[in-house]
Structures are given as structure tokens and as C-alpha cells.
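Progress report, Aim 2. The chain analyzed during this reporting quarter is listed below.
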Amino acid sequence: MEKAECPECGKNFDTSDAMKQHRNDKHAKQEATVVVRKPKLTFGKVLTYGIILLVVVGIGYALIWALTAPSTGIGAPGSTHIHQDFKVYVSGNAIDFSLGKYQKPHLNAHVHLEGGDGDLIHVHATGVTMEFFLKSLGIKFEKDCLTMDTGDKYCNEGDKALKFYVNSKPSSEWEKYVLKDGDKILVSYGNESEDQITQQLSSVTDKAKRT
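Predicted C-alpha cells for the chain:
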């Protein structure tokens, strides 16, 4: 009598037809229900994907900066880290830059004030000018006019004038002056006497030298 053995389980049958029927009934269903297991997401893979994402984001930021930097002349954030002391006076009154609206959360990564300190400028990019810094605070700084973030505008008129001092000396660079490490800056609008200007210059702190 003809014998047939199932190649999957080794069971013997009297006929090949019976064996084929057995395979169709038993083993075909098992094959159809095979579960495809998804590969597990390991910590190593997560770390690798995270690094790749950071690299892609960094490259994208660098490309954006490369396209925009030539128009400003200012370097990428992190290209330097320097400090300057400064004061701004309007009609004899010092502007309080310790107010929250002037502090770091409201500014950009290139230059800012921080920690509630309204005397010390933190510069994190090369080529930052005094004009750029004040603009980051919402203040427009020009040769003849100072426009505050409130919209109040102070322009040269009569005996009132806008004055700009760098390290106790008058400067004519105005918007073009690039901040340097340890600078002491004074911007003053009004009709102050020389003695009053001297007092304002003396009020500029020396914090940059200690940072």
C-alpha cells in the first residue's frame, strides 16, 4: 500500500492525497497566521536618531545664517562672548534697563541683557554694533535721533542734542560702532553741561571687567 509522509510534521498517511489534504488543513493555516514582528526600538537607535536630527537642524540653521549674515555683517551666535557696561540718559534721567521687557527672554541669541541686570551687555556674536543692540531692545539709534521702545522720539533740536561716548570719549561712529570687550558706553540726549556729562560717564559701571 502506498505510504506518504508529511514533510512538516512527519506524520504518515496511506495515500499521498490524504497527506496533501492534511497539509492543506493543518500546515497551510499555520503559515497564514505567521506574525511579522516589528524590530524593537532600542535606546541606541533612539540616541542615533536624536543625533541625526540635531545634525540636520544644525545644518539647516547654518544654511539660513549663511544666507542672511552677509546683509548684517554679524557673526553666528556663539562666535564670541564679550561684555560692555552702558548707560542711556534722556533729559538727565537714566533709562532702567533692569525692567523685564528689556531682559533676555525678549531678545535674540546675538546680544542681550540678563539676570535683571540693566548695566551689562552680553554679546554672543562677532560684529554686533551699538545700533544692533539697542534695536534688539526696541530702540532706534541714529546720529540725530533716539526713538525709544515707547515710540517717544528725541532728536537734535535747539540746545538739545544726542551724544555718544565710548570709553569716556565722544564717538562719531554712531550706528556703525562695533562693541568691544570691556567697553564703557554712554548714550545721552539733552542739554547737559560738561559737569553733568562727566557725572553720567562716571555712572557707567565696571562690571565688564569682572566677568
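The CA atoms of residues 146 and 154 lie 5 Å apart. The radius of gyration is 36 Å. These observations will guide the mutagenesis work planned for the next reporting period.
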